[in-house]
């Protein structure tokens, strides 16, 4: 689960991280009062959407010459003027795709005199099974670009979960960031604060880009991106309250309510598969044959007829879907249950696009028989390769 920048900073502030004063607003009428609560005279007006690259983004309605989604303002009047241009408009960034996201919230923050911009994040390092810091002197840039062009400027440091952040760990990170006093002296405490917040709140990502050294030599968290492990949210009802469903795909919200693993993509072939690995393989082979998947959808190993019906409805609700591929390998999941769910869904919502079904495993003969006798216009496939070829051919006419 993702949260907004202003929410992430509030969480980090509770742990003692150095963040600037700021006020979130949802209407232009609130902009003047929000700015007057801050020291000034420099302010930052920040679009709050669940996507990176806001500063380099552009508002659809304002043309190519428009300023981005993060702007400096040198007066209260400037804050209000920027709020008018930003609130309610669609911000397009590298991460939003061409459709962009409507800005419904702004964060008005006190400005900072920046001397240096650094990159610092925490994530789960799958290779070591530990939480790791990623540090670079190249703050303000996409870390993927830094990794590609100058990988020597990135330090990845796994942390021993028994000891936490040691003095040696803090020193190594401070050296990689080329810190000098007083920032160097402050960094050890900040590293421990961030590690504790990450661990205590079951975060899956904590990214500070940039972490700045101000002209007075002190550190400040200038931006913060936080994601939480969805499997651990039951332990954090206060974090669940931070969820902003307006930033999420409606189909993904519905899928979560049915305990389905669903991610909307940009292609035109809807996929229903059981098992995350098989779902990834299905998407890969669709791309191999020249098409693009419209979604990742894993119905799980023990899905019911009702769950399969819900999954089918979610796929067909996507207007971009021009064909559907159902790929089931029945182990715990029975092929006849899938067949019954598909038939129930088709009868309820109709079928206006090609549908290819590949069933294999438990009760496969019964599953195929149910579909064959249903009278539905379904294209049967013998294996995954055959299924991918048939759905791509059907979609492309």
TrEMBL record:
Binds 1 Mg(2+) ion per subunit. PROSITE patterns: ATP_GRASP, SUCCINYL_COA_LIG_3. Mg(2+) binds at residues 209, 223. Keywords: ATP-binding, Ligase, Magnesium, Metal-binding, Nucleotide-binding, Tricarboxylic acid cycle. One of its GO terms (biological process) is tricarboxylic acid cycle. This is Succinate--CoA ligase [ADP-forming] subunit beta. Pfam families: ATP-grasp_2, Ligase_CoA. Its EC number is 6.2.1.5. Its cofactor is Mg(2+). InterPro entries: ATP-grasp (IPR011761), ATP-grasp_succ-CoA_synth-type (IPR013650), ATP_grasp_subdomain_1 (IPR013815), Succ-CoA_synthase_bsu_CS (IPR017866), SUCC_ACL_C (IPR005811), Succ_CoA_ligase-like_bsu (IPR005809), Succinyl-CoA_synth-like (IPR016102). ATP binds at residues 46, 53-55, 109, 112, 117. It is an enzyme of class 6 (ligase). Substrate binds at residues 274, 331-333. Succinyl-CoA synthetase functions in the citric acid cycle (TCA), coupling the hydrolysis of succinyl-CoA to the synthesis of either ATP or GTP and thus represents the only step of substrate-level phosphorylation in the TCA. The beta subunit provides nucleotide specificity of the enzyme and binds the substrate succinate, while the binding sites for coenzyme A and phosphate are found in the alpha subunit. The lineage of its organism: Bacteria, Pseudomonadati, Pseudomonadota, Alphaproteobacteria, Hyphomicrobiales. Residues 9-254 form the ATP-grasp domain. GO terms for molecular function: ATP binding; magnesium ion binding; malate-CoA ligase activity; succinate-CoA ligase (ADP-forming) activity; succinate-CoA ligase (GDP-forming) activity. Transmembrane segments: none annotated. It comes from Afifella marina DSM 2698. The keyword Mitochondrion does not apply. One of its GO terms (cellular component) is cytosol. Heterotetramer of two alpha and two beta subunits.
């Amino acid at each position: 689960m993702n949260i907004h920048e202003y929410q992430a900073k509030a969480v980090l502030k509770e742990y003692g991280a150095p963040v600037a004063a700021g006020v979130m607003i949802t209407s232009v009428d609130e902009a003047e009062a929000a700015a007057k609560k801050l020291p000034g005279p420099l302010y930052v007006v920040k679009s709050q959407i669940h996507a990176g690259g806001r500063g380099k983004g552009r508002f659809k309605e304002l043309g190519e010459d428009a300023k981005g989604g993060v702007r400096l303002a040198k007066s209260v009047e400037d804050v209000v003027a920027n709020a008018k241009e930003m609130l309610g408009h669609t911000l397009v960034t590298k991460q939003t795709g061409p459709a962009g996201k409507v800005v419904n919230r702004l964060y008005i923050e006190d400005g900072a005199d920046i001397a240096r911009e650094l990159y610092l994040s925490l994530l789960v390092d799958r290779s070591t099974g530990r939480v790791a810091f990623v540090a670079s002197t190249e703050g303000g840039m996409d870390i993927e670009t830094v990794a590609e062009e100058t990988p020597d400027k990135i330090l990845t440091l796994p942390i021993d979960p028994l000891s936490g952040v040691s003095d040696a760990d803090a020193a190594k990170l401070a050296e990689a960031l080329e810190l000098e006093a007083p920032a160097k002296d402050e960094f050890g405490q900040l590293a421990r604060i961030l590690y504790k917040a990450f661990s205590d709140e079951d975060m899956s990502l904590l990214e500070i880009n940039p972490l700045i050294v101000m002209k007075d030599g002190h550190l400040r968290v200038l931006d913060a991106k936080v994601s939480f492990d969805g499997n651990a949210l039951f332990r954090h009802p206060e974090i669940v309250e931070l969820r902003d469903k307006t930033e999420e795909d409606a189909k993904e919200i519905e899928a979560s309510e049915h305990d389905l693993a669903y991610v909307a993509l940009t292609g035109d072939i809807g996929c229903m598969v059981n098992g995350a690995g098989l779902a990834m393989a299905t998407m890969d082979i669709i791309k191999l044959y020249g098409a693009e998947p419209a979604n990742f959808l894993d119905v799980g190993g023990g899905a019911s007829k009702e769950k399969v019906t819900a999954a089918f409805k979610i796929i067909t609700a996507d207007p971009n879907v021009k064909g559907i591929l159902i790929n089931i390998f029945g182990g715990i999941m029975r092929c006849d249950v899938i067949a019954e769910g598909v038939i129930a869904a088709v009868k309820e919502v109709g079928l206006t696009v090609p549908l290819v079904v590949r069933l294999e495993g438990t009760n496969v003969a019964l599953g195929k028989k149910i579909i064959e006798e249903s009278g539905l216009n379904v294209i049967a496939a013998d294996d995954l390769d055959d299924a991918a070829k048939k759905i791509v051919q059907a979609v492309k006419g």
